[in-house]
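so my prof wants the structure for this chain in the tokens format not the other one, which i didnt know existed until like an hour ago. anyway here's the sequence
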Amino acid sequence: MSDRPGQPVAPVAAYEPPYYVAVFTTVRTPEQGGYGETNARMEELVRDVPGFLGMDHAQTPGGLGITVGYFRDADALTRWRDNAEHRAAQRRGRAEWYQSYTLHVAKVERSHGFSRP
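here's what i got, hopefully its the right format
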């Protein structure tokens, strides 16, 4: 998916299962100093993880944020979870940026997509 100006918005493609998803759902605090820079760095880092397939983001007007990361296998997801910079960002998120969050990890067994021609 892209939410950058001039780039089309599209969901991550359907991949041949099995693969894994990490669904990170958040409500942020009013204090967001440094969040944008850290988020951009995390997006840069995760793209270098072997087995990373893509990421979708959505934000509701009421402040609920959802990020879904797609990973080829559990090892790729573990490499991301254990990345030292990612761990530091997680700590800062709990201390400053998130009012609450949930993380759901699942193995995808079926996947398909549609795009209008």
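also thought this was worth mentioning. The beta strands are 19-28, 52-59, 64-71, 98-108.
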